[in-house]
Amino acid sequence: MVGEGVTTPAHEAPLVFPSVAFRPVRLLAVCAALTAVAIALSAWAGYVLFGVFFGIGLVLGLVNALLVQRSVASITADAHPLKRKMALNSATRLLVMSAVALALAIVFKSQGGIGVLFGMALFQVVLVLSTALPVYKKIRTGSDVSDLPAEDATPAAASSANPVSRHDQMPKD
What we know:
Layout: H1 24-44, H2 48-76, H3 83-107, H4 115-140, H5 155-158
Helix pairs in contact: 1-2, 2-3, 2-4, 3-4
């Protein structure tokens, strides 16, 4: 059989990321709207700073998503991107983001600093929905998911020289 007995260790396997609809400007608008609602509701409840910290959490989530997009683009631009490099990058980024969020929550505990954590958590839900819904719609209508418009795809996915856009040409383990 072809390829029998030939395996690639997981840490050396090439990275293959599907193209996903990621629209940072739209996410920024959603974050701004959610921040306005959070500030209004928290001001009504008498804790206006909670809404402000909630907005800071949303911004931290957006910054994290942009950093993910940038790191995926740079790592997959390599001739042989490795999972280890992506895992180390992700772990470092998540450690820094978590430390910043926890520090804000602890330092501004009495002013509603925990709103940062709630904002970051809600951003993850918004991010998943904003990327999964276009893919779900394409699947439901029977279209090929790779037909997503180029402006909806991450720069890493839009590049023809990138393994992301050549996933069907990648060797299978």
